[in-house]
Amino acid sequence: MEKTGLIFFPAFDWAISPTHPEREERLLYTRDQIFEEGIIDHPKIIEYKPRLAEEIDIQRVHFCVPDIKSQTTTAHLISAGSTLKLADALMSGEIHNGFALVRPPGHHAMRVVHGNRGFCNINNEAILVGYLRTKYKIKKVAIVDTDVHHGDGTQDIFYHDPDVLFISFHQDGRTLYPGSGFVEEAGGPGAYLTTINIPLPPGTGDKGLLKVWREIIKPALEAFQPEIIINSAGQDNHFTDPLANMKVSAQGYAQLTAELKPHLAVLEGGYAIETALPYVNLGILLALAQEDFSWVKEPGCHSGQLAQSQEVDRYVDKIIQYWQSKLAGKRPDKEQLFGPDKKYVRQRSIYYDTDQIHEHQTETVEYCPDCPGLYTVSSQAAKHSGKNYKIWGLSIPYNACPSCVQKGYDLWEKPGSLPGYHFLYLQDKSRDVYLTGK
Questions:
Q1: Residues contacting residue 171 through CB under 8 Å, at least 6 positions apart
Q2: If 425 and its partner were Cys, which of 63, 178, 343, 365 is the partner (CB 3.0–4.6 Å)?
Q3: Is 108 a catalytic residue?
Q4: CATH second-level architecture of 4-328?
């Protein structure tokens, strides 16, 4: 009998504020619902106790400024560690799939972390990917983000990684935080079209959700052939969510899960604490366990509530046509994408809405014909507290060629060429070595 692993962690001791939407009640109503329906005693469900992520798990993903302890609490380490506990159970064959019903969430946390943004400090799914790659030598991973908000943090972390396919469908960034996730954001020059953004108009419901799954996401996954599929299981596309404007039901989420068949699902957003989360989570869990979910129905759910307008139908069709054409077309040559300088440089400003931090960042990726190339980032943040840091980070990719590894260490060992920084960070993912300097 195939088993589904489950971890609950409501994080009683972590909250942004007592009345903030991101609070422990998000999971307590779900747990009550699952107990009430007797699902927790189902022979296919195994509940695990969470564990803490270790510092090295976070170092594989983030440059935490000034350090990891400053940017995390025990709750963050347990939330991330819960995904790793399920990964071990999956890889050992104890479970067929798993659902980490945990908080704090993580998909808005980027590679560089100066504070909390979008309720996130560290990225649970990215930490999970790093763990699977390092411990189990998994090469190709797909992350499908079903949160109503664009998973900009996850996108940032894997934007230059050709072995991670990141797909996000979300309410159009012109109408909702974080204001990103447009179709033009399709991956860096060394990982072009391994980022697929599907911005959907307000009012999209089950019909549109399942259509983009079947006509864009499913074919993209089949072409990429990942060894592991991770679902960033945000639930704020629900028609009752107070922070968004979509029309998805618990049935829509459950049907998507049944067809997506993720190996691991990790809770992200969803703030209709009583009217959505208990039912959506129940539907997802039943779908993972390959049990009947047709009876799951939230209060107030009727066909009129979920109906899409013809305008939404037309917009969804337009997005589908765009991606079908893009993915079927000839992909540009990698060297051509890097341009004559053989170097990709991007400057941007990043706002941390929760902690009111303004960050200016310059990232550089050097062209290499044999691997994704060296990644460097220079970042300076202005905090309302007045305590500002300027940092520089170097990342050597997992599958770096020997030449890039040597080049990376040559650069790291010449600190005199990097004046004016408070902290320097090295990620050598090829050897699982992580260093910090001043």
A1: 148, 149, 199, 200, 201, 202, 204, 237, 244, 245, 246
A2: 63
A3: yes
A4: 3-Layer(aba) Sandwich (3.40)
